[in-house]
Amino acid sequence: MLERPNADALMQGPLGGWLRQQTHVREEARSKANSRLFMVLIIGLPVLVFMVLLDPLGLDFKFFLVMAGTGLGWWWSQAPKREAIKQVKIGINDAIADTLGLEYTIEVDQLDGFHTARAHEMFPGFTRASFEDQWCGQAMGHRFCLHDAHLEERRGSGKNRRWVTTFRGAVMTIGCTREVHGVTLVQRSGKHRKFFGGAKDTIRLDGRELAYVDMVHPGFEDVFDIYSTDQVEARYLVHPAYVERLLKLEQGLQGQDIRALFVRGELIVVMKANSLFESGSIEASQDRVLLERTIEQFGRLADLAASLNEWDRAARKRHREELVGLQQDRRDTAQFVAGATAAAAVAGAIPARPGGFGRKGLGGDPRSETDPQD
Question: Are 219 and 244 in contact (CB under 8 A)?
C-alpha cells in the first residue's frame, strides 16, 4: 500500500510556512470581495431595478434580467476569493504530490484514460467536459494517472435550456502488474440490457465484441456485469477480493457507480464523487482539516491501485481453486454429454427386436419361461 504523507510533518515544513504567508493574501482577497459586493449593491442594484421597471420589458424578460444580473454581480464580486482559494489548493496538493514522488497540476493534459473509458461507454451522455486536478507519475512501480472530470449535458429548449451535470468524479489509470491480453469491462448491473430484460449476451465496444461472463459467485451479478474478450482471463482478474475493494472504496469516498476496465495492460477506474482534492479554503483555520482529508482521499485511491494489482496469496489460491473446480465441472458435463450421445448413437444402430401380444407373442420374449425374473 502507498505510505500516506504525514500531515504534521507537512504543516511543520515548507508547506506550513507558505500557508502562513497566504493568510495575508486571503485577508486581502476577502476585503477586495467585500468591496466589490458593496459596489454591486450600490451601483448595480439600482440600475437593475430601473431596467426592470421599464414598461416595454415583458415579465419573463424581467425575471431573466434579475436572475442573470444577480448571478453575474455575485460571480464578479467573489472572484478574488476564488483565486486565493485556488492558489492555496495548488500549494497543498503540490506538496502532497511531491512527498509521494508524483506531479500535480490543476490543469489536465493526459486524457488517454478518459478517451478509452468513453469508447467503452463508462460515462453517461454529455455535451461538454471539463477537467482538473491531475496527479501523474510512478506509484508503487507502475504508471499512475488520476484526474477529476466534470461532464454536462444541455437539456430543455427555449427559455428552459440549461446545463445539467451527468457525471462528476475521478478517472484513474493504473499500469497492471499482471500481463493482460484481452479486454475486460466491469460495469454496473443493468447498463447493457436486452429488450425483454436480462444482461445482453454480447456487446460491441471500441471495435471489439465482448461476451458476457458468468461468474463463479452469482452474487456479483446483483452489483456488476462483466464482459470480456477472454472468459478465462476475466475470471482470473475479477475475483471476490477485487469486487469487495471496489465497493469499499466507493463507500469510503462516498462515491457512486464505480466501474473498471482492463485494456492494453492498464486498469481504468471511473467513479462518481463530489469534492475530491478540494484542499483550498478562504479560512486559514481549515487548512489542516482539508490537508488531512485530501491525503486520505488520495491515499484510498492509490491503495486501490495497489490492491487491484496484487491480492493476498490466500485469496488468489481460493480463486484459483474455484476456477479449477468450475473447469472440472465443465469437463465432467462435457464427458457426460459425449457419453450419452455415443450411447444413443449405438442404441440407434441396433435394430429393435419385434414383439407381439402375450408374453412370448410374435418374436417372443428372449427369456425362457423358467427365467427366475419372470
Answer: no
